[in-house]
Amino acid sequence: MAFSSTPRARGLSAAAVVAVAALAMTGCSAGGTTGGTTGGAITIGTTDKITTLDPAGSYDNGSFAVQNQVFPFLMNTPYGSPDVQPDIATKAEFTAPTEYTVTLKKGLKFANGNDLTSSDVKFSFDRQLKIADDNGPSSLLYNLDSTEAKNPTTVVFRLKAADDQIFPQILTSPAGPIVDEESFSATAITPDNDIVKAKAFAGQYVLTSYDFNNLLSYKANKDYQGLLGAAKTDVVNVKYYSDSSNLKLDVQEGNIDVAFRSLSATDIDDLRGNKKVKVVDGPGGEIRYIVFNFDTQPYGAKTPEADPAKALAVRAAVADVVDRAEIADQVYKGTYTPLYSYVPDGLTGATESLKGLYGDGSGKPDVAKAKASLAAAGVTTPITLNLQYNTDHYGPGSSDEYALIKDQLDASGLFTVNLQSTEYVQYVKDRTADVYPAYQLGWFPDYSDADNYLTPFFLTENFIKNHYSDPEVNDLILKQAVTVDPTARTAVIKEIQDKVAAQLPTVPLLQGAQVAVTGTNVTGTQTTLDASFKFRYAALAKG
């Protein structure tokens, strides 16, 4: 029985760029120097959104962007590397096949002066599992049985299954921030303003002002003792835009230093010709896909005409008809590419499981095939499909993307699509309340391993919460996570994708890169995008 103090080597050296920084902009802060750091204040702009600062209540890029700056982690990834290393810990290792032991650095404190000890670590993970919020990341902790604070600097995680190859990476994910037990509720989501007022931070930065989804201000935390070291920039100002065209305008006028998530593909193309800015392209693990709610989709389990075979035929018809290449070319100008499976290209174990099953077998649509399959299942056409999407979280291209998907489905004669859009803060509540029969989601990976595209989606207790459950798939996902031999593990990962592709709880559409736009005097962005799957404010400097 093998166990190691280091996680399994990743199959992709940063092909998964988690957009963990919902970079935001403000027109104030134009240079100047600040104490103890290089360069002046950085101004960042985004159209992304925060749902909550509490790590137990959010599992989205906009929220993790802030959490990643202000909360400490036991494990993290240093700049320029995708490899997991101890952060506020001195060491982390498997001390038994089902025990992962972390030793904290001594003298750790939160910005409010409270000691940061193993008791806070235990509290942080216990509350994740206790609260288990529908929009939280607790599903990532499926293998965590219990957490023990052995002494003030020693934490022991007891796992349900031995030889977990993923757990060290999960400690770097949205499930991993350590919070102050004296400032957070043990049983409920703590309001944002209470967190800010309590100064319950111990990351590279603290929040000095907080206007929800409008304007944030960060200041470097001089007491941070973690892996990432001192922040390059003392002050970072972040403002959130509702319209990407305004974000582009401020980029052009030099009002912001960095724009990240999300400008349209057309805007990015236009900015490439602007000598006053740099367009930085990085490898990306982002995927875009359609989710089907197995209870409320056409012929879903809780509809009057419930029929599992017909419901599958509807999902298969969507997969047969949608033209991914047309979406990638027309809407995204090649910044996204077609995706035919659940694990994106570049990660170990990635397949193209959907390509041979749906459409013409080579990636193109096949309406005749969809029509025949629906008829064989006894489905009357056209099928009314209520399809929901969002623009403020997944970018301005979403409107054109879903308008084109509607056109493709409607033009087949097999569907009548009712297309609606909802603001993201409401969207995340509605989707887990069974409001949407079919809807858009995107995924920004937490760590660059195939597991992160399988576990949150297809375990019985999953983040998607679309009522998909398959015991065989569930067991295979658990199996791959504890399979030490890389070849054997890859085979299991491929098997999972094949089985899920035949069931279509989601229909993958696109895989995309990450793009940032910076002023010419900003340094650090290229390294961060290319070599780390976390885009952090502290990697940037202005001078």
TrEMBL record:
Enumerate the UniProt keywords alphabetically.
Signal, Transport
Coiled coil in keyword set: no
**What do the Gene Ontology cellular component annotations say?**
ATP-binding cassette (ABC) transporter complex; cell envelope; periplasmic space
Task: Report the GO molecular function annotations.
Answer: peptide transmembrane transporter activity
Instruction: Please name the SUPFAM superfamilies in this protein's record.
Output: Periplasmic binding protein-like II (SSF53850)
Gene3D superfamilies attached to this UniProt entry: Dipeptide-binding Protein, Domain 1, Dipeptide-binding Protein, Domain 3, Periplasmic binding protein-like II
The principal location of this protein is other
**Any idea where the Solute-binding protein family domain is?**
84-462
Which BP terms does GO give this entry?
peptide transport
- Pfam families, sorted: SBP_bac_5
**Which stretch is the leader sequence?**
1-30
Localization recorded for this chain is: Cell envelope
Q: In which family does this protein belong, per the annotation?
A: Belongs to the bacterial solute-binding protein 5 family.
Annotated protein name in UniProt: Peptide ABC transporter substrate-binding protein
Native source organism of the sequence? Cryobacterium mannosilyticum
